[in-house]
Specification:
- It is a single chain.
- By secondary structure, this protein is mainly beta.
- The chain has one helix spanning about 30-35; strands spanning about 1-5, 10-15, 20, 25, 45-50, 60-65, 70-80, 80-85, 100-105, 110-115, 115-125, 130-135, 145.
- The chain has a domain at about 45-170: Jelly Rolls, CATH 2.60.120.
- The strands form three sheets. The protein has a six-stranded antiparallel beta sheet, with no helix packed on it. It has a five-stranded antiparallel beta sheet with strand order 9-8-11-6-13, with no helix packed on it.
- The longest helix has 6 residues, at about 30-35.
- It is globular.
Length: about 190
């Protein structure tokens, strides 16, 4: 298992050992003992799974607020996605910054998304299955999002924004500046 730091404070890329041969491959996607030994000691409570049928499906930029804020461990089990995070934690050295990462069935990478980050992804290939663990249950009352096209954040999506496929809900999120932000760096 390899844990890679990113430019965003507290965000990690996880690479598990993958054993392949002529039949395919085998990997342990999550082993609590190994994660804990690597300093990632999180009590995941729920697994989620989404399927996006066509390229250009954008899901995001999502989060849950306290007391139901979530840490996520995200991976693409089929297809290729461009996964994006925005640091929303007031006072963080990387507040308001974003980064994008390729997660795919080929690179087997996982992304650790800490509490206080907006998370979203766009599908780059058809039939993308994305699975992720969370350390808090879904809460409609704490469900939130920020605009995927917030000009102040300036996420560079890998395809034309007018070609993206979004839910109605994801077209109506406020900008980061408009959001009444409860996330404080060091207090989440």
């Amino acid at each position: 298992m390899k844990v890679i730091d990113t430019k965003l404070q507290d965000v990690k890329i996880i690479e598990m050992d993958v054993f392949g041969d002529h039949r395919g491959f085998f990997t342990e996607c999550y082993t609590r003992e190994k994660f804990s030994a690597a300093g990632i000691d999180i009590d995941f409570l729920q697994d989620n799974h989404s399927l996006s049928v066509e390229p250009g499906v954008l899901r995001g930029m999502h989060f849950q607020t306290n007391p139901k804020a979530q840490t996520k461990l995200v991976r693409a089990t089929t297809g290729v996605i461009y996964d994006v995070l925005v640091d929303m934690r007031l006072g963080s050295p990387t507040y308001g910054k974003w980064e994008g990462y390729i997660l795919s069935e080929y690179n087997h990478r996982q992304l650790l998304v800490p509490k206080g980050f907006a998370h979203g992804f766009v599908t780059l290939t058809p039939h993308c299955n994305v699975q992720y663990k969370v350390d808090e249950y879904y809460s409609k009352e704490n469900d939130g999002g920020i605009a995927f096209n917030d000009p102040a954040v300036s996420i560079e999506w890998p395809m034309q924004v007018d070609k993206l496929v979004l839910s109605e809900k994801d077209t109506k999120h406020p900008t980061l500046a408009e959001f009444d932000n409860p996330f404080i760096y060091g207090e989440i």
